[in-house]
Amino acid sequence: MFAYIVRRVLQMIPTLFGVMLLVFVLFNVFGGDPSLVLAGKHLTAESLANIRAQLGLDKSQSAQFLIFVKQVLTLDFGTSWSTQQPVSDIIGSRIGPSLLLTGSMLVVDLLIAIPLAATVAYFRRGLTDRIVTICCTIAMSVSALVYIIAGQYWLAYKFGWFPVSGWSASAWHNLWYYVPLPMLMGLMVSLGPDIRFYRSFFIEELGNDYVRTARAKGLSERVVMLKHVLRNALIPVVTTVMMSLPYLLIGALVLETFFSIPGMGNAVVLAVNNSDFPIIKAITVYIALATMVFNLLADLIYKLIDPRVQLT
After folding, report:
1. Which pLDDT tens digit goes with each residue over 225-238?
2. Cβ proximity of 120 and 129 under 8 Å
């Protein structure tokens, strides 16, 4: 196990180098000159030269790439070009609200989607399966904006059950007061496809020979579902969840915008609008690192779920 982890970590090095090279080429070679945007309307040759010198854009491409490599290795991406704040401070202040919203939404989604998917798969082609499938299809057909606007108008404004929008400095207060409504709106969008997606995994496992063998041995349906079907169906579920975890870092853009949540989604939009490359580069690298780490964790979880899995 330890040798496998070491081997996978070593494999991350060329992958990370490829990500750095690709990001650098996209932003520094094809991304244009951000100093033209930052100079504004009062553009002069002198001001343009000063801005390029401050941003380090007057150096050669190789020197700029070496600076970027150093930033990645130290996780210090300098200061924002538009606000002059340290990038680490901006991300540190924004990532908490995003993770609080998207993390709680993911947990609730899994707690609802997996048991419900297993239930409808067990009663497939029955009334329960048909009702849940129809409800999921209808939910998937409605735009997220419709859910958000209707939720804010009826649940918040008309009934007063939730605040329309807002955020506070207390994480617990946010979790119990500001997060529930945007989380509910997010679940209305995500539960439908997730239930149908996970349902297909359970149906596939229920049709395998080992299930018939377990039933022929006289095992109860509860044991068959929990000990055999659930364990094997969780492997693709773990893959899906692990692949989605890195993107929790960038938050939920639409939800954060409508509910005035100061998360990473808003930071990304502002950085793109202002051509703030340091923030965009930092977020891109963080997502790449998180993707590699969570892929490794997914393989280790496979081993815990099924010890027969061979890690190669």
Report:
1. 888 888 888 888 88
2. yes
The reported pLDDT for the residue numbered 184 is 94
Average pLDDT over residues 79-89: 85
What percent of the chain has a predicted confidence (pLDDT) above 90?
A: 26
- Residue 232 covered by a domain: yes
pLDDT digits (tens, 9 = 90+) for 112-126: 999 999 999 988 888
Residue given tokens 């700029």 in the structure block: 64
b/e map 206-241, b = 16+ CB within 10 Å: beeeebeebeeeeeeeeebbeebbbebbbbebbeeb
- Looking at the structure of the chain, the number of domains it has is 1
**Under 8 Å between Cβ of 279 and 250:** no
Residue 47 within any structural domain of the chain? no
Quote the distance between the C-alpha of residue 231 and its chain's center: 24
CATH number, domain with residue 252? 1.10.3720.10
Angle at 146 between CA 111 and CA 181, to 5 degrees: 45
Cα–Cα dist 139/44, whole Å: 54
The Cα–Cα gap between 264 and 277 comes to: 15
